[in-house]
Amino acid sequence: MRVLGINALFHDPAAALVVDGHTVAAAEEERFSRRKHGKRPVPFAAWELPVKAAAWCLSEAGLRPQDIDAVAYSFDPDLAKPAVDMGLDDPWDPLRLTYAREAPSFLCDALPGLEREKVHFVAHHLAHAASSAFAAPGAEHSSVLVVDGRGESTSHLAGRRRGGVVEPLASQQLPHSLGLVYEELTAHLGFLRSSDEYKVMALASYGKPRMAAELARYVHSTGDGGFVAKNVPWESFAPPAEPGRGWSQEHADLAASAQKCLEDTLLDMARWLHGRTHDKVLTMAGGVALNCVANARIAAEGPFSRVWVQPAAGDAGTALGGALALASRGGDVTEPMAGADLGRRWSDEELRRWLTDAAVPFEQPDDVAETVAQALADDAIVAWFQGRAEYGPRALGHRSLLAHPGRAANLERLNDVKGREQFRPVAPMVLEERAPEIFDGPLPSPYMLFVHQVRPAWLDRIPAVVHTDGTARIQTVSSAKEPLVARMLAAFERLTGLPVVVNTSLNTAGRPMVDDPRDALECFGSSPVDLLAIGPYVVRRADFFRRPDESAPAAAAGVPRGEAA
To answer: Where in the numbering of this chain does the Carbamoyltransferase C-terminal domain appear (predicted)?
Structure first.
């Protein structure tokens, strides 16, 4: 079957294509439209579809809309209830549901040639569950835990996968929602809800959970697979923070307290689920599954031998999950994800044309990995644009900013480059085989979805990637799957003795991650980055901003090194 998955209703619109059980392509609309998260999660935007992402997925496979066997839309309006009946304060929710019911017609208009009867609604949390249970390696018999803000009428699903079927075992009815409670806290702390929840997680490390016992009156598990989470009187714990005015210790303590309540609740839910399934493997999805601190605690203290989290755990991942669910329902044997690099790519020749057409001075070194390693050893900040773009919010060595981890000042330097708050950490990438001697936590960890303790001997050696609590959100790199990144890491270690490189997303604050060559050049030109490594080519800042009357070396004019003579 050829199945197109669509996520559109709430936020992070995305598309994914599954052909005969194999994931061919997946991308978020924000990478094309350059609007962060694609749109705001309001009812008035519920009609907007990931038109560009869907069209690209089809073109990547050489398909037309009429060639598609089925389309999965990751929300089923027949399962929804009026907002007032669910205890939600959302007077415009009927408009959202109207748009959901008309989604098949909207899709047919957006993708001419698509037949309306091929569009199928897939329950939101089932799509989340399928995105993890069917995409995880070695998960044919596994448990699955989905926790987010909301679906049709619930905010959580616990179940198990048995072959090609996901069987729900428990769900939590709205208005109780761990995701919505965390969103409310995000807004209370002066950040943008449904966008900046990861900032709350980072801020929590600077606080003490001294309010957790009182907060647990409002947020706790119920022992039956569900939980209580609603009507938290945030102002009784700390005054609201003004956006852009910074935070106080009281705000950090509230973040730490809420983080602890979230972790305690999730851990209890995982234990309940294991008691019903006795599985060794747990897969996770939903926006709350992007909380890597909570994930690490579930892995460390929970009853499962292995925990796998969908790298596009938020709503974007339901595009893939909906497609996998329909493919499995149609009889296809679904394949696990080979990696998160499911987005757009360009050939070396296409990249050369981009650089030439933009009149950008560039060179082609013998080995871009060695050149980048030397630049990093010299304390340069490098924009790294290689291969297919990542699906999900994490930069995983395809659209990354890289730096030297041994320079403590590089944390502040990178946050300045990106225009971010200084309390936010940056992450390390490390070769898979070197990780155990440096980090303690779930390994391998290829998707940056767990935090790891940095071993004492390394705390002072890689200070730029050590968070205030002594942890790091690592990415392990497989030489077999990521040979170019692995070569760069090995070369950097030869030069510095450090097997770790700083890796953060290639973007600036409020902007989506860089996706195409134009984005890369715009980001490079507008931020103090020293080197752009784009495919086999490099662009140096000194050459990029050279005055017209200054002569440039032959290599900087686009001549491969070794041919200039």
So the answer is: 373-541
